Amino acid sequence: MAPPAPHRWRRTPWPPRPLTVGDVHHGPPGPSPLETYTMAPPAPHRWRRTPWPPRPLTVGDVHHGPPGPSPLETYTMAPPAPHRWRRTPWPPRPLTVGDVHHGPPGPSPLETYTMAPPAPHRWRRTPWPPRPLTVGDVHHGPPGPSPLETYTMAPPAPHRWRRTPWPPRPLTVGDVHHGPPGPSPLETYTMAPPAPHRWRRTPSPARPGPVPAPARAARMGSGAVTALGGAGLPVPSTRGLTVPLRRACNRGVKLWASAFGGEIKSIAAKYSGSQLLQKKYKEYEKDVAIEEIDGLQLVKKLAKNMEEMFHKKSEAVRRLVEAAEDAYLKHEFDADLQYEYFNAVLINERDEEGNYLELGKEFILVPNDHFNNLPVNISLSDVQVPTNMYNKDPAIVNGVYWSESLNKVFVDNFDRDPSLIWQYFGSAKGFFRQYPGIKWEPDENGVIAFDCRNRKWYIQAATSPKDVVILVDVSGSMKGLRLTIAKQTVSSILDTLGDDDFFNIIAYNEELHYVEPCLNGTLVQADRANKEHFREHLDKLFAKGIGMLDIALNEAFNMLNEFNHTGQGSICSQAIMLITDGAVDTYDTIFAKYNWPDRKVRIFTYLIGREAAFADNLKWMACANKGFFTQISTLADVQENVMEYLHVLSRPKVIDQEHDVVWTEAYIDSTLPQAQKLADDQGLVLMTTVAMPVFSKQNETRSKGILLGVVGTDVPVKELLKTIPKYKLGIHGYAFAITNNGYILTHPELRPLYEEGKKRRKPNYSSVDLSEVEWEDRDDVLRNAMVNRKTGKFSMEVKKTVDKGKRVLVMTNDYYYTDIKGTPFSLGVALSRGHGKYFFRGNVTVEEGLHDLEHPDVSLADEWSYCNTDLHPEHRQMTQLEAIKRYLTGKEPLLQCDKELIQEVLFDAVVSAPIEAYWTSLALNKSENSDKGVEVAFLGTRTGLSRINLFVGPEQLTNQDFLTAEDKENIFNADHFPLWYRRAAEQIPGSFVYSIPFSTETANKSNVVTASTAIQLLDDRKSPVVAAVGIQMKLEFFQRKFWTASRQCASLDGRCAISCDDETINCYLIDNNGFILVSEDYQQTGYFFGEVEGAVMNKLLTMGSFKRITLYDYQAMCRTNKESSDSAHSLLDPYNAFFAAVKWIMTELVLFLVEFNLCSWWHSDLTAKAQRLKQTLEPCDTEYPAFVSERTIKETTGNIACDDCFKSFVIQQIPSSNLFMVVVDNECFCDSIPPITMAPIEIRYILLFTNWSQRDSRCKY
To answer: What's the CA gap between 170 and 164, in Å, rounded?
Structure first.
């Protein structure tokens, strides 16, 4: 080949005429033809032949021809064996695409074709029929008027070649181009990896001169050429297109694409009013000031705002602590106290005679909008008592009595800060006082499982972070019920551990057995994933052998000591939990060695069973090491006895009066009645809790360190989002916050719920790490900086998914971060580069703005905080638009509003006002939109202002949910702009982005198409995207426009050579992410193109027209088949365990039989696993692809080698859009090439046996 000019190959007799660059000369036919090849620039070359070989050859030798005026010749051996030699001129240059090398002549000439890199290949030719095939053979078709030749390539891999007309697509390694003689189009042989490949070609005529196209086609016999877009390709077909028809098809596809693009853009621009709005903003261009956002200053300001908000909540809690401690100080315990309090379960309940039940007096409940319209009493609190506790226990009655004084403080706090929601006091005795009062409903078993002492806010406030080693006796004496109680005890202890704690579990008999062997000798963080992992392994414990407690104690002390020295643990306090049915010794020598005299490690002993023979030893061990002893005889005793250790660990804080403010990670407390009632209507609420411990101040008990309980209040995460000015973060920008453990408090990518019938909590929703949503930060630079509470900046390229994860936007984000003082949280802000880094200020008068805000089609983002309407009860019923109007007119001086945001809202209202009259004129013109194909026009600005116009009646809308509160992705939310706004912002200015909305169903059955375009203030990248406009039209209307355009042709007689109606081709319209908008098969609408035309999509990826982007989802839910087990449920649910334990009451009198005989029979009902598989959803990590088109590709033709044919296609971009028209040959089926899907693949982890010592290490498998 000799680029760049069009090239042809010619044959002349030997000797040739004087050579010129680009000529190729072939010797005359004969038994020993001589051939001369002239090579492409940089300089003309000649090849001369010398006797073969010049001397005996060895592998790798290079031989030069005799000296003389002619260029030297080089013979290079071509390993591996068998070896052939190929010849190049001396000195040789590196091979380039198109080089062809021939071996020396002979009576049976052999030809060697050397391909361009990556590796040289050889072909050999033998007469037909060939001998038995070996690698490297070249086979020719039998002689005839139109012989076909097949070239089979040598290793390393078989390749296949296909033919296209000149000019070819951009050359790639391995392309070789041959031009037939005459004026007919040149032919290209193009390599098509990775499938097995062959070469087919028609030989050039023996005589020079042009050959007419019909004669050339005739010579090819049944192998007619089917062409799409000029793609010349021999296909074994009874039908084919002549050269003129190929050209007609090429012109036709361009014509169709151009006609459809012009038509649909005209419709979109006309009905959206995009040109009018762009013009209006241009008129104000000189009056606005564009500012670059200072990310660091912004994040510091936001952190300051959040700090003030958090401080108000913590001050409310502090007032509750002071009131509670003062009330207890004045109270004297009365064992005979009779006090009628409002029991949250019994209030408003009557007996059969109509009388109120005891503790169930009348309690007025009124729906309150601030509490999500739940019926509450904002004057009083009520009290919940756990089911397993007695309502009139003297300790509970006395606690309820003195805590009544908190009612005044509850009400006062709510008056001071009307944004407060639930306030409460959780007593160490077990009762729970909640404000405002609300009725609690038991479950179907009559049980309320809620115990405030098990909640994270209680545990974190009551104790300091701790390192815990749990020792479980699995000797032979622990068989039966004792082992079941021991497992339940371990599970209950795990419930009391939080994210700031570290633990491990060791089972012992005569040997040590780590419950998780891969965590041998270290502690792990007590997050939910690790605790659940250990719980699963508890079922594998079984009792046998002799208990050697001394070995276990030595291991536990050594582990705690080593872990403490790493600096990775809690550092505050350490404990060993011993669960056994007895100890034969006090093991004072071990304690003297490791723990005395400082006694830094507390020992808590749990005696399992009713025997008291070894109780003294266990009591001594606990008391001698500042711990606590308790005996657990039944499953019902487990929870209450486990709680006792918390009081002991809280003593240092009580004695020192350390009222530390504790903030929990984000969580959903579905056990509370308000959460249960909201779940069906609005979904569960994500919140954080601020809590503080309450201590006894009485002098006689102060030295003992008595914990009275914990007070707290909830802060919904949506309250944090209200402090964030979304309009300053840009279209793709967002704010996020994490805890000191790296867990997400708020982030747009956090998905705590999943759909299955109704929304449910994901099991690990509260421990989603920042690195799992910002996964592009492979080195955790951003996460570690924020966990360490630093202030700074970080940048990286990110891949953000939109539209239910089906599409991806690739951009570069700048991250700014700092800590929030007084809390364990850090705040981050992400700003996308380009238009996301700029903000502009417009200025209009209040009168102008108010006038244009009065238009009925204007609305504002409900979740944005233009004015704070939560501060005063009379403002809570106002919409944000109403609040702005009353604020600007001075009717509500107490309203607190964002003046800067309101000023920009007024500016957008004025600039966008003319579009309302424009839309109205279109709607009134009956001749326009007569078929009602366009249904809705909409507009959104960067201030959250929206305008909507309906061209049809509301009842006629195809998509009733569009732009409503149910359609979360297409409206302004607290954490993101509408989907159509975000996608339009990344499109080329002036063009429209079209898409079919995805439904949550398995099959996408959408019947509408959305089109939108961005409005920029300036014509450069620094211009902020000030607004986006668009329309929604019927899918049927959109598709009809496409089919009409595809029937157009440019012929003078009006007879089209080819159209999408032909059965030989399939026509598709796809978007820039590969989803089908139009197909001849309507059922394929909305599907990914690769699922329908896998071979074509694979070729588009190979050619670079589309790009595959690999994405990861670390919050996915995967369906798994698990063996169903009734025992697991009863083990982990203390109340089910409680009811199951009732069976044992009948056998308590014959304990000896129960332990060894009857127990085995009875207990089998409790622990037998049902041997059946059950399909469940479980958290998992997945990898899945997304696809994006290459913007520089306007049109592409391609050919695909299938089993026994070649499939050709043309892809043409639709002008001013994100769409592509794809025309595919329908006569060749590529069943051997599988479809390309977007289905996620679960990531499996290998279990690593190593010494884990990282703060949040976890075993993944």
So the answer is: 12
Burial of 606 (0-12, 13-18, 19+ CB in 10 A): buried
Q: How much is the pLDDT for 42?
A: 43
Distance CA 29, CA 602 (A): 101
Residue 330 C-alpha from the chain's centroid: 55
Query: In whole angstroms, what is the distance from residue 1114 CA to residue 1126 CA?
Result: 29
Show the CA angle centred on residue 673, arms to residues 668 and 675, nearest 5°. Answer: 30
Tally DSSP H helices, then E strands, for the chain: 29, 51
Output the CA angle 707-711-717, nearest 5 degrees: 140
In angstroms, the first-to-last Cα distance of the chain is 55
Which domains does the chain possess?
A: 259-292+843-1043 (no CATH), 304-450+666-698 (no CATH), 462-633 (3.40.50.410), 724-836 (3.30.450), 1065-1120+1177-1242 (3.30.450)
Compute the distance between CA of residue 534 and CA of residue 495 in angstroms, rounded to an integer. Answer: 12
What length is written for the chain?
1261
**Residue that has been written with the tokens 């954080």 in this structure:** 688
Sign of the C-alpha dihedral computed for residues 1041, 1046, 1050 and 1055 taken in this order: negative
CA distances in angstroms from 160 to 193, 194, 232, 1169, 1214, listed in the order given: 7, 9, 16, 58, 32
User: Which of helix, strand or coil describes residue 1055?
Assistant: coil
Which residues are bridge partners to 705 per DSSP?
none
d(CA 298, CA 815) in angstroms, rounded, equals 11
| 1102-1114 burial: b if 16+ Cβ within 10 Å, else e | ebebbeeeebbbb
Phi first, then psi: give them for residue 894, nearest 5 degrees.
-80, -10
CB 887 within 8 A of CB 896: no
Strands 753-756 and 758-761: antiparallel
Spell out the residues 6+ positions from residue 953 whose beta carbon is closer than 8 angstroms to its own.
Answer: none
Which residues, in sequence order, are CB contacts of 806 under 8 Å at separation 6+? 998, 1073, 1075, 1186, 1238
pTM score above 0.90:
no
Q: Which residue has the higher pLDDT, 1245 or 230?
A: 1245
Q: Which residue has the tokens 């057995």?
A: 513
Distance (Å) of CA 1087 to CA 799, 875, 1002, 1007, 1102? 22, 47, 11, 13, 21
Q: What is the pLDDT of residue 371?
A: 85
**Cβ–Cβ under 8 Å, residues 685 and 651:** no
Long-range contacts of 623-631 (CB under 8 A, 24+ apart): 624/586, 624/588, 624/591, 625/591, 625/595, 625/599, 625/601, 626/599, 626/602, 627/575, 627/602, 627/603, 628/604, 629/604, 629/605, 630/605, 630/606, 631/606, 631/607
pLDDT one-digit tens code per residue, 813-858: 999 999 999 999 999 999 998 888 888 888 888 888 888 888 888 9
467-523 pLDDT, tens digit per residue, is: 999 999 999 999 999 999 999 999 999 989 988 899 999 999 999 999 998 888 899
Instruction: Collapse the DSSP code of 1074 into the 3-class scheme (helix H, G, I; strand E, B; otherwise coil) and give the result.
Output: coil
Is 934 within 8 Å of 957 (Cβ atoms)? no
CA distance 219 to 141: 13
Task: Output the six-digit token pair for 774.
Answer: 């910002």
**Tens digit of pLDDT for each residue in 224-262?**
333 344 333 333 333 334 444 445 566 778 889 999 999
Q: Are 771 and 742 in contact (CB under 8 A)?
A: yes
SS3 281: helix
For 137, residues 6+ apart whose C-beta sits below 8 A from its C-beta are: 124, 126, 130, 131, 152
β partners of residue 506: 471, 514
Query: Residue 719: how many CA atoms within 13 Å on its side-chain side?
Result: 24
